[in-house]
Amino acid sequence: MMKSLSRKNIIFGALRWSIVIAFAVLLIVLASQNKISKAAMEDVSAAVSESIDLSKMKKGSESTFKRLYGLDSAAFESVVLYWPASNMDAQELLVVQLKDLSQQEQVKEAIAARLATQKKSFDGYGVEQYALLSDSSIIDVQGNYILFVVHEECAKADSAFREAL
């Protein structure tokens, strides 16, 4: 009887500590995702754009951003967009500096809609571009910055993005 009670105490103690540790890890992850970066957009966008080949893209304007994403760039601190130079390409780079963390969901939804539109456009005939959109795209939310990249070397762009913050 005494052994089983002791065993239960050990098990419950271990379970309690496991829950406490899991909760602490969750808090750390959540806190790091909403960390406000003081990095300048010029530095962040330069780091990202220098990490990949932009030759199949052209710099987008405020009106291009509005047309592709349905968002007004004036609502954000800063926006940098490179979009496909040809209708036959899918490579794209977007960096958004938010004014407020409450804008994260709105931007993520707009990016998801853009990605879905592009996939639909290339589905059935642009096999390489569809694969690029499906397998080589990243949406990375880091507090007040959001990165969306469609590129063969999207991981390099994401790494440069995180390092610049």
Can you summarize this structure?
55% of the residues lie in helices and 17% in strands. The chain is an alpha+beta fold and 165 residues long. The mean pLDDT is 90.
Low-confidence runs (pLDDT<50, min 5 residues)?
none
Radius of gyration: 21 Å
Proportion of residues in extended strands: 15-25%
**Shape type:** globular
Q: What order do the helices and strands come in, and which of them pair?
A:
Elements: H1 2-33, H2 41-51, E1 57-59, H3 62-69, E2 78-84, E3 92-97, H4 104-122, H5 127-135, E4 137-142, E5 145-150, H6 154-164
Antiparallel strand pairs: 1-2, 2-3, 3-5, 4-5
Helix pairs in contact: 2-6, 4-5
Q: Can you put this structure into words, describing what you see?
A:
With 165 residues, the protein is α+β, with helices and mostly antiparallel strands. 55% of the residues lie in helices and 17% in strands. The protein has six helices and five strands. Strand 2 and strand 3 form a beta hairpin. Helix 2 runs antiparallel to helix 6 and helix 4 packs antiparallel against helix 5 (127-135).
Features:
5-stranded antiparallel beta sheet
